[in-house]
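Q: I'm writing up a methods section and want to include an example of the input and output format. Could you take the sequence below and give the corresponding predicted structure tokens, formatted cleanly so I can copy it straight into the document?
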Amino acid sequence: MKHLIVTFLFLLIMTTAFSQSKIKYPKTAKDNVVDTYFGVQVKEPYRWLENDTSVATSALVKEQNRVTKDYLSQIPFRDKLKDRLTALYNYPKYSSPFKKNGQYYYYKNNGLQNQSVLYHQATLTSEPEMLLDPNTLSNDGTVALSSIAFSKDGKYLGYAIARSGSDWNEIFVLDVATHKLLPDHIKWSKSSQIAWQGNGFYYSAFDAPEAGKEYSNKNEYEKVYFHTVGQDQSQDKLIYEDKQHALRECYAGVTEDEKFLFISITETTTGNGLLMKDLSNPNASFVELAPGFDNDYSVIDNVNGKLYMLTNWKAPKNRLMEIDPANPARENWKEIIPQSDNVLERATIIGGKIMAEYMKDAANHAYAFDLNGRKLYEVKLPTLGSLNGFSGDKDDNEAFYVFTSYTFPPTIYIFDAAKNNSTVFHKAEVKFNPDEYVCEQVFYTSKDGTKVPMSITYKKGIKRDGKNPLMLYGYGGFNISLNPAFSVVRIPFLENGGIYVVANIRGGGEYGEAWHMAGTKMHKQNVFDDFIGAAEYLIAKGYTSSKKLAIDGGSNGGLLVGACLTQRPDLYAVAVPEVGVLDMLRYHLFTIGWSWTSDYGNSGESKEMFEYLKGYSPLHNVKSGVKYPATLVMTGDHYDRVVPAHSFKFAATLQAGNAGPKPTLIRIDSKAGHGAGKPIGKLIEAQADMWSFVMWNLGMKPVF
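A: Here is the clean output for your methods example:
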């Protein structure tokens, strides 16, 4: 009894010490900046924080981090949680193998390596040899591989790296036989493909940005170049540019036989135009395969002289078309696999068959078709979950795929396309017992009557008494689907009685382009209504209560969390907007933000659009005198996709306006970007901070 009393008093003291009134937040200076939109004045007191490299901003970042670190260090189980996460991360991780010129290639992480290492071997049972170790490229693991591509003859490996999480890529070339790094060095590329042809490759790049503004300036006039191995970047041949349209992106792709070059042109994240060039004819010019930006077009490959293309043209859930390069006009296209009731996500040619991956209610199904579109068989998958693509050759029956679900750790299978047979090749050795957990899918009704799917994962034996801590996660944008996936970072929450929920809200791609468009521009409120509806359903059904409910989301999902916490601050106990798009009036003015207007619109296009954006923009809807949930804003100093100014300004506004006792903190990671390639050490630190903040503010007393 005495022990219980002491424990209770300790928790009471700690809770009081962590209250909003006891936290001394940094004093953030205010400017008298006012913008005028269609006659409406909008105050911008924290505009100066957009200069993320200034001395004043750097000083505030340090002070905010000091306050946040002090708060987190007082959480009694934070260190033990970090130890638990470290132990969970510490298992060998493998990627799905792929073959090139008689060699198998794959990535492996021994457990706690900051970056995974690229290996190759002659057979699946022979001794592996390391080809490229990104951990040697920096002292702290903050240099990551962002893409690789082998030349057709296997002589060269082109690889792109990203430093400190930035979207800026640098491309290098490795001699595969000697493992020697060649002098080739390409700079100022962003998310570019490396498309080999002969002794060189196509890539996309921007002009060098202004010094000191590499991570915030608007990126304009992207171009496609051809680089010959051994030459300096300044000698690269310009292949494509558009001098009339600054805000367009362009990407190059080459068919496996290197006969055709394709240039995909985009204005936003939705829809692309497509150009084709016959590389076997030195005098050939580009031919427009698909005009405009109303639909998506993706070339799968050149098979027997015909091009196979996945598209949503006149098919919102996608279909597969065949194109004769000699007669490429769209009226001559032939439908191979028509649109069905479910979304056709991917198509790959394996062993002379089309392996088609569909999504039904946020879970994957796979079927084989012959090259004329006749269905041959369904691939039997272990359970409802996610299939991470087939890796193989169009003339080889051997392929690989990875399958996972919320309670099914990633498992690599060898697949025989001739026999429709899957064999386990490697199963993740994570310390997790799926038999102890339940994953169920439910459908709830949103505000306007739309049925929305949601996955709920929890430990067996949990009662629906409204007392369970629950984390609700969502995204809702850019046609991105939240398919079932396993993650070790959720295990400590689940094993301590937490419930983890993913809502497949509108704006994503779970039901095709119509589902996506229902969450864009003047329909964006549907996304927030769906998420709020999920929270209300979970409370009504006894899974949790407002005092035990946390919400989380990153990037566009950070916008989701920011909008929902400002619209319904009463509904949640904790909110974690990660790298969020939080200033909806100015987002398009930074780096690549202009490409998101297909989902958001922009504040300058019309008064109606301005008023709609201002109506939900998280930054502009924080109200003084309102009691907000415990909030941990998370960002990083190298986030040049969603610039950190979004988070800086939002956190300052929330700290100034919050009238409640709960903390409003911001965690700013150093030498970290949008998330991809973040070293495991930084991932564990960030997850330990996030989950300890969440669990503490949900009143949990975890045991590790």
